Amino acid sequence: MRITLPVTAEDRRIAWLASLALGLTLAENALPSPLPGVKPGLANIVTLVVLDRFGWRVAAWVSALRVVAGSILLGTFLSPGFVLSFVGALAALLALAATRPLPAKWFGPVTHSVVAAFAHLSGQLAVVYLWLIPHAGLVSLVPVLAGAALVFGTVNGLAATRLLQQLPLRPKPA
C-alpha cells in the first residue's frame, strides 16, 4: 500500500524559507569565530522576516527545520552542540511568541531580534550550567556573550527591517 501525503503551498513555502535559513547557517559555520560559540546568527534574519510576514507558527517550523537539518549536514545531530542550538532556538521562539503581541511602535524587528538573541543566550547558558559545566565561573562569560548578543541581535534586526521594507506587504498566493 502506498501512502501519499498532500503537499500544500504553505509546505513549499516553509521548505523554501527553511532552506534559505539553512544556507545561511552553513555559510556562517564556514566563517571563523572570534570566540568559541559566538556566531552572528544570520539565519535569524530569515526567522524575523518569516515571523513578520507569515506568523509565529511558520517561523517556528522554519527555525526547527533549520536547526535539525543544519545539525545533520554539519554532523552534530544529537551532540551537545545540537542540544545547545535546539534549546537556544526554542528559547528565542518562546521570547518571540511573548513579544509578538506587544505594540509594534516599540517592538519591531530590531527589538524582537535583540530579545531573541538574549533568550537564545540564556537558554544555552542554562543548558551549559545544568548539563555540561556546572560551575559558577560561567557567570564571568556573561558580559562578553551578552555584548555579542546585543551587537548581533541589533545588526540582524536592522537587516531584517531593511528586507521587510523591500518585500511586498502580503505574500503572493501560491
TrEMBL record:
Organism of derivation: Thiobacter aerophilum
InterPro entries associated with the record: Hpre_diP_synt_I, Hpre_diP_synth_I
Entry's transmembrane regions: 67-98, 110-132, 138-160
Alphabetic keyword roster: Membrane, Transmembrane, Transmembrane helix
Protein name: Gx transporter family protein
Presence of the UniProt keyword Isomerase in the record: no
Pfam families (UniProt xref): Hpre_diP_synt_I (PF07456)
